[in-house]
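Q: Give me the 3D complex with D-xylitol-5-phosphate.
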Amino acid sequence: DRSIKIAPSILSADFANFGAEIRAIEAEGADWVHVDVMDGHFVPNLTFGPMAVKAFRPHVTTVMDVHLMIAPVDPYIDAYAEAGADVLTAHVEAGPHIHRTLQAIRGAGMKAGVALNPGTPADAVAHLLDLADLVCVMTVNPGFGGQKFIDMTGKVRRLREMIGDRPVHIEIDGGVDVTTAPLVAAAGADVLVAGSAVFRGGSVERPEVYGANIRAI
Ligand code: DX5
Ligand code: ZN
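A: Here is the predicted complex, encoded as structure tokens.
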């Protein structure tokens, strides 16, 4: 479906070569670039922070979609705006004041995303839909790439009903591949993050594999 966006997660890229990896996935058809920020506290893994994200910025010509798996969020919002994030997504579970966080993200000039862990119901965003540009439905427990897809299609359908005619994306993150992508797209998702399914088998020397993987999803 042409209206479905594919957002490769650079969590599965070569960490010594981010600039070239980003240029390769964009040349091979990525619609957005998904950047997974982990703090070793909200999730049991560490990736990179605002200085690295700022270094990615000049390589991204599409949309830099920054997924914060950190707590707290609010002290870092301005740093990610300065780093050039287009979309900044915070988890509803990351603190007591997600409403304030989403207001602050928009106030800093970015699109605001709100993410839901697998155990969190759709209703957690019921009062946030006018403050969010994107709802990210996690289909793995966040922290690592390459995990098995957890079926959240019921949650996606419910969110699509709740969103109604608002211009809010539903993004799916975790375990998206050629088998699971059609399920979530049919349920109403329109942005699909994929890490291992895009980078598997390819490299910056063999970027055509990335292209084939993207088109297969
Ligand atoms: C998980 C991250 C995902 C992850 C997806 O915590 O938020 O973006 O990189 O990787 P795959 O597609 O391999 O499940
Ligand atoms: Zn992510």
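A quick observation: The mean pLDDT is 98.
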